[in-house]
Amino acid sequence: MEPRPDVPRVNWAEKITILITIVIAAIGGIQAFIYSQQKKLMADSISQAETQMRVSVRPWIGISDEVDAVKTSPIMFDKDGNASIQFAFLTRNFSTSAGPERYARGRVGRYRRLH
Amino acid sequence: MLAAGLVVTEDFTEVNRKMNEFCGDNYVGHPDMDMGFVLYPGKQQLVTEMGGLYPRSMMISKSSSKKFEGWLVGCIGYRDQFGYLYHMKFIYDLADPKFLGHPMEFDATPNTQITGSFKQWWAAIDNPGEVKQGR
């Protein structure tokens, strides 16, 4: 194909400039990818630190380790064979942090706080 | 909150189902309805007194003796200062006072009562992945 006389030819300097621009753009893309990965790693690291901090101060509430932590009445069967029982559990916070024990309103049960 | 109940059965699937039911949102840690006491570390203890019923129609025995065992199953739900909800599940079984630690088997005879002592049979806390935030 013959070169058109009205269209200027691309010289070597322009070709090198275009090539360098493409390389710079590619490097920029790689840098953007690396930065996004670093951001993700930093976010994961912060999340892990938060989890570790939360776990280290979390409350541990369970049934008390005292001998009489669970008190019950006998299991009683009525005339139809249905079973019923009364019971009491002692719960205690074994951690070094306060733990709000929460309950849903309207449930059967009485709560009494000991010292 | 501590939610617990009586199960009279010889079917461990039912025991497990009931325990998980007590750990559900309907009982402990309901995001819109939860409230309760702050339990501080140390000697302070909270007494939860409750009653449990178990209908005769739900009693199942899969053992050859066709007798039943008594179980107390339940769950403690509580939150930390950041609002994360934790569970502690537990199962107690009725032990024979004559053979301490040995599960007691009995019939559901009307107008009778069964006396024994409940011993901890199993207990567990949440897996870390199950802990969820929110009030």
Q: Can you characterise this structure?
A:
The complex is a heterodimer of chains A (115) and B (135). Chain A is of the alpha+beta class and 115 residues long. Chain A folds into 2 domains: 11-58; 61-93, no CATH class. Helix content of chain A is 40%, strand content 26%. Chain A contains 1 helix and 6 strands, in the order αββββββ. In chain A, strands 1, 2, 3 and 4 form a 4-stranded antiparallel beta sheet that branches. In chain B, a hairpin with a 5-residue loop joins β4 (69-79) and β5. The longest helix of chain B is centred in the first third of the chain and has 11 residues, at 12-22. Chain B starts with a strand and ends in a 10-residue tail after the last strand. Chains A and B meet through α1, β1, β3, β4 and β5 of A and β1, β2, β3, β4 and β5 of B.
Helical percentage of chain B: under 10%
Main β sheet profile of chain B = 4 strands, antiparallel
Spatial separation of the terminal alpha carbons of chain A: 99 Å
Portion in helices of chain A: 40-55%
Q: Count of DSSP E strands of chain A?
A: 6
Keywords for this structure?
heterodimer, A: 115 residues, alpha+beta, 2 domains, 4-stranded antiparallel β-sheet, B: 135 residues, mainly beta, 1 helix, 7 strands, 8% helix
